[in-house]
Structure formats: C-alpha cells, structure tokens
C-alpha cells in the first residue's frame, strides 16, 4: 500500500469549509447592502461606516459570484463565466463609485452614474446566475427567483438612468419611468432575503457537489 499517497491526499472536508466561508461572506453582503441602503440617514461624520458597508457588500459578492460561476460552468452553462465577469466588474466599479461619491473626489452626478451603472452590472450577474441556477437546479428554485428579482431591482434603475442620459436629461425621468425606478428600488429587500437564505444553505451543507 502506498502510504505516501494516503498521507498527501487532500482532506474531503476542505471543499465543505470553503463553501461555509462563502456562506459567511454572503451574510456579510447582507450587512453591507443594509448599511448602504441606510446611507441617506447617516450623518456625514459617519461616512466611513457607509463606505465600509459598500466595501463589505461588493467585495463580499466577488467570492459568491466565483462560486456560482464555477458550478454553473461545470454544469455546461458557458454564459455563466460572462455573467460572472460582468458582475465582478460591476462590484469593483461600485467600490470606486461609492468611494468617489462619499469622499467628494468627483462630482456627485458623475460618481452616481458610475455607481448606478456598476450596480446595474451586478444586477445582470444576479439575473443570469440565478436563472442558470434555476434551470440547473443548483439551488432552491424559490431562492433563485428571489435572486432574479433582486437583480432586476438594480438593473432597472441603471437602464432608466441611461435612457435619461441618452436624451440629455439626467434625473428627468417621466412620471412613468420614475414610478418604475422607485418600485424597482424596493426589490432590494429580495436581495436581503436571498443573501440570508443562500448563506444559511451554504453553511449547513454537508458536502460539496
């Protein structure tokens, strides 16, 4: 018997531990989204807390995006990688936009465009990744639907903003578009539920498939 092979074989617990770490990071994004959503109610003296929330939200999403992308790509969904990279680009752009906006290193309008566009890219990732997970039964289907709804909550405001920019009237949405944008913002609650549910599911998993 090759005892060396027995000693050097990777532990089967390692993938489970990695999955649990992703679960805890998913919880972290919940906290970050909650803090970022409450940003208008924070005094300027607490801007660093808001920035920490944005960093926690967006940097925490990157490992989650990679984890979902790995499983969807392994299941034969080639578009999963494209969605993953779009999402990661949006997450990094959101960090830049949030930092520029809070630290006043760029005009508010430009920083807001960067941030909204970045969240729109994150929304694309959420919609595509959860749609693929729904089709492949990689996660609970109700959970996947919540993720799709959360994605539209960030994607729709970005699309409306770019409609306004394209006609040269940023912030001048028609009453109908404004009502859609405001309604979409309430979809953020779906992300909070999605993050909590996915985090619990990942932490409680007994094996890595």
Protein architecture, described:
The chain is mainly α. It has one domain (13-204). The chain has helices spanning 3-8, 13-37, 47-74, 79-102, 108-136, 141-166, 175-185, 188-204. The chain is globular, with a radius of gyration of 19 Å. The two termini are 29 Å apart.
Task: Label this structure with key terms.
mainly alpha, single chain, 8 helices, 79% helix, 209 residues, disordered N terminus
In brief:
The protein is mostly helical and 209 residues long. It contains eight helices and no strands.
- Strand content is under 5%
Categorize the overall geometry: globular
**How do the SSEs run, as a string of H and E?**
HHHHHHHH
The major pleated sheet works out as:
none
How helix-rich are the residues, as a percent range? over 70%
Rg calc: 19 Å
- Number of helices, counting only DSSP H or I runs of 4 residues or more: 8
Distance between the termini: 29 Å
Number of strands: 0
Low-confidence stretches: 1-12
Number of domains: 1
Mean pLDDT: 78
The chain-level structural class is mainly alpha
